[in-house]
Amino acid sequence: MSGFSSAWLSLREAADHRSRNAALAEALAGHFNLRDSVTITDIGCGTGSNLRATAALLPARQSWTLVDYDPALLSTAKDELGNWADEARIEGENLQLIKGLAKIQVSFRKADLAADLDAGLGAPSDLITAAAFFDLASKAFIREFAQAVAARRAVFYTVLTYNGRCSWQPRHPADNAVTAAFQRHQMTDKGFGISVGPTAPLYLSDQFKLADYSVQEADSPWNLGPRDEMLLAEVQAGHLKAVSEVGAVEPSALDSWASRKLTGAVIGHTDTLAIPT
Ligand SMILES: C[S@@+](CC[C@H](N)C(=O)[O-])C[C@H]1O[C@@H](n2cnc3c(N)ncnc32)[C@H](O)[C@@H]1O
C-alpha cells in the first residue's frame, strides 16, 4: 500500500486536470503532432488520471505503460480507464480503449521505482511522464531518473509537482508557520530517501539541463474556491496531520488554524517539459 487512497486521487482529479498549464500542454502536443503513434510510460500512475488528461494531447495511436508499486491502485486504474473510455476491451493483462478518435493500448507494471528504476521504466518509450509525483523523490533519485530518461532519448513531461507557494482564504495569523512546517514535512523520507519536497521542480530542471535537454517550466496551481469544499477540507486536514507530526507550530495556534472554515486556497504546482536537444 502506498498511502495514496483511490478516494483521495479521485477527489483531486478535477482540480488536477483544470490546473495543468495549457501552454506547456500545447508544447507537448506540438512536439508529437506529426507522428501517427506514440509510446508512453507513466510512472506513479495511481488510478490513471495522467492518462485521462494527457491522451487528448497525443497522436491517435497510443501505447501506454502504467507503472505503480501499489497493486490496488493499478487494479482501480484498469476499472476507471475502462469506465472513462468510449469502448474498452480487456486483452489478457492489457486494455484496448477507444476514446474519441484515439486508439489507446494500456499495459500495467507493478514496480517499486525506488528499488529498481530501470526495471520500472522498462524498454525505451517516446514519452516518460508523471503527475503529482516528483515532490516525493530525493535528489539522488531525480539525478538517476534524468540520466535514465536521457539514456532512452525520451521526452519528459511532468505536471502538478508541488512547489510550496501556498495561500489561504480567509487569512490566519498562523498561515506562514503552517505552510513552512508542511514544507518541512514534505522534505522527509517518502520512500526515496530524504525528499526534495517543494524544490523538486528546481532539481528536475537542473538535472535535465545537465543531460542536454531543453527545459520549459510553467505554473499549474490549484485555485480552490467554494466549488471545491471537500477538497479544501481534505487539504486542511492533511496539513493539520503533517504539521502536527513536525511539531513546529504551537498546538493552540494550529488548532485555531485548523478550525477556521476555508473558503479558498492556492496550492502552488509546477509543470515541466524536457525535450532532448
Ligand atoms: C500523489 S500520487 C499521484 C498519482 C497519479 N499520478 C495522479 O496524478 O493521480 C503518487 C503515486 O506514486 C506512487 N508511488 C509512490 N512511490 C512509489 C514508488 N517507490 N514506486 C512506484 N510508485 C510509487 C503511489 O502509489 C501513487 O500512486
Q: Can you describe what's shown?
A:
The protein is built from 10 helices and 10 strands. The chain has one domain (6-165, 195-223, 266-276): Rossmann fold, CATH 3.40.50.150. Helix content is 41%, strand content 28%. Strand 6 (127-131), helix 6 (139-151) and strand 7 form a beta-alpha-beta unit. The chain is an alpha/beta fold. The chain starts with 5 loop residues before the first helix and ends with a strand. The structure holds S-adenosylmethionine. S-adenosylmethionine is lined by residues 2, 4, 9, 16, 44-46, 49-50, 68-70, 73, 112-114, 131-133, 136, 191.
Helix percent band = 40-55%
The appropriate CATH architecture is 3-Layer(aba) Sandwich
Distance between the termini: 38 Å
SSE topology string: HHEHEHEEEHEHEHHEEHHE
CATH homologous superfamily descriptor: Vaccinia Virus protein VP39
Molecular shape? globular
Report the average pLDDT across residues. 97
* Major β-sheet profile: 10 strands, mixed
Structural class: alpha/beta
Note the total helix count.
10
Indicate the CATH class: Alpha Beta
Q: What bound compounds does this protein have?
A: S-adenosylmethionine
Radius of gyration (Å): 19 Å
User: The CATH topology, please?
Assistant: Rossmann fold
The total count of strands amounts to 10
